[in-house]
Protein 1
Amino acid sequence: MRGYVLHGRGDASFGEIQVPPLGPYDALVRTTAVATCTTDVHMINAAPYPNAIGKPLGHEGVGVVEKVGDLVRDFTPGDRVILSAGGADWRIPQAQRGEAKYYPNNMPYFSEDPLQGGVFAEYVRALDADMSMAPIPDGVSDEQALMVPDMVATAFTGVERMQIEFGDIVAVLGVGPVGLMGVAGAALKGASRIIVIGSRPKTLDLARRYGATDVIDYKQGPVVDQVLALTGGVPVDSVLVASGGSASDQFTAAFRIVKPGGHIANVSLYYEDTVTLPMDALSYGGIEKFFTGVFVQTGREFYTRLLRLIEQNRLDPTGLITHRFDGWDELPEALDLMRSRNPDVIKPIVTV
Ligand SMILES: [Zn+2]
């Protein structure tokens, strides 16, 4: 079968690869749509995980079940499913205390199994299908479902860490696709005022559609001053960090605008070696402010709840999709868009 394989740093291309073998708990899924992600671009540029080399890239995909292993209970060929973006191992004891995702050795990028690859391939093996995949309801389109495994799931995991209560004032730093879903999630959680910090007009407009009450252009002045000017100097209850740029700058801004006792959830991946935080932003170490580095929640139960929000018209993530491609041959173009820094690109998808 065909797959878009990472060969090494700066080197990825289509190649012929082996259809993965099927274990008793696994499903073989024929990919029908994939999305490209800034993480894919980083994977190609830096090849940070040795176990990912030689395998197909990609972690945002939906498909149709082709075959199932003998011990799969709840899926049959023909089912439309979400493929997992992460690799929680649901059969380790730690899973029983909700910690499955902290041991992600099933993740294609980390797995030592050379045949456990990403979703940029004609077929994907879903390990432990009953636990890792989610059936897509009839009322949910492939495009909607495709935004779930990373964009919605990452943002909503972060939003859960913000501990939002009704009427809270929250800030979302960065309005890429995950930040935008963070806005939608904060609105669903009952935030009253959602202050969004970005600069691209297209994404700031979309942020308003997803529930932002105030938008700030960080190019118009220091973020902290702009946020506090909006709130009359009152710090916000919680912050979602979903921005690019420098981790030190973003975390400093977050700590400066969040209240004592407030929560900061970071959903961005930064690749700096060190972070510098001014001590006054941490109140010289003497005031409680909570910071969580967020790793996406995966699994059938979580995906099913997110899909239910879409099915019941509480959420439509397709506003993120700015570019649509048709066929595997156009995948490199969809990846180029993620590299382009074109301000109109939010999320490209490829239907195959
Ligand atoms: Zn992604």
Protein 2
Amino acid sequence: MSSTHSGPNPGGPSSSVAVHSAGNVRKINFCQWCGGPTKHEIPDGEEKIRAICTVCDKIAYENPKMVVGCLIEHDNMVLLCKRKIQPSYGLWTLPAGYMEIGESATEGAIRETWEEACAEVEVLSPFAQLDIPLIGQTYVIFLARLKKPHFSPGPESSECRLFSLDDIPFDSLAFSSMVVTLKLYAEDVKAGQLKFHYGIINKKPGTSPSDIHAYTLDYHLQS
Ligand SMILES: [Zn+2]
């Protein structure tokens, strides 16, 4: 089962891997609406410390972000992009990124694939939802196929490549979420049936944020 995390990420914000200050309410020092200074207190009737504006009294609630992406199958291979941006520069990832206001999860996954791999894809089915409570992110990854057999690196990628399952660079992936997604996918393919997976990625306590293999996959449900 999941465990509860609070406080700053143990690796600290100087880590080379994405550390989002989700839940780190003390970093909010000014009101996003009026610019007034904030105080950090537990509002009446609540349980968590929040940043509260001392001028307009509005409370800054922080909520997890949704990361959407595509697992693209082509000729028994999957498409990966080598990151040309930090964090995780030079490491491989599925095309994925933050969902924007005004778009659906599928639209976001298709857009990110176009931006990172210059590939036009059709989404086929949901493959995985992976929650990462520590950093306040939820990944939704869709199975997809190329509409045309063309792809090339977009501005955030230095290379895009199809990998057979045996060649997936598990030691050079950008994020734990990618390790989990691609492991589940490889297991499903070998078992002859793709499933939908839900799970919680929990960082092993005391490990470096850059150690993408130092996690447990908890509450794994599949259908
Ligand atoms: Zn205010």
